[in-house]
């Protein structure tokens, strides 16, 4: 305690004295923004209107300039894209008979398991349902099913002939 006062009370008194000293020395400055303790880098010049000397007003003045209507140039409208033509089904997808597919695969008794696997992959590359237009997937699916059955049967026959 200093001179009968608590430390807190003495700090409050000192701050109050400093505030009174500053208020006596304060000069009116219209270019200061309330809440900022430093001055701006420019001073208001003589002859400038009072509203423009207020910082808040400068913001509003700028908004009015930006809000002025500007002529709008219309971009040219791109032409509508032409509708895509109906897809045409490839001729090989129309052949769904087992005899036609067997002729395409050309399975023979001399084929090995490896050669049959190669035939399956090459047939799938051209006929897999994921590789054709959605309208033709049913035919592609039928062709793949039949081709897989024919190749699987040829592999089974080879296994039987080896076991004999």
Task: Give me the secondary-structure topology.
Blueprint: H1 7-25, H2 50-53, H3 55-66, H4 91-94, H5 98-105, H6 113-127, H7 137-163
Helix pairs in contact: 5-7, 6-7
Explain how this protein is built:
- 54% of the residues lie in helices and 0% in strands.
- It is an all-alpha fold.
- It has a domain at 91-163.
Topology order in helix (H) and strand (E) letters: HHHHHHH
C-alpha Rg (nearest Å):
46 Å
Shape: elongated
What's the β-strand tally? 0
SS content category: mainly alpha
Sheet-strand content, in percent, reads under 5%
Q: Point out poorly predicted stretches.
A: none
* Helix content class: 40-55%
How many helical elements? 7
Quick one: biggest sheet?
A: none
Report mean pLDDT, rounded to a whole number: 79
N→C terminal distance: 116 Å
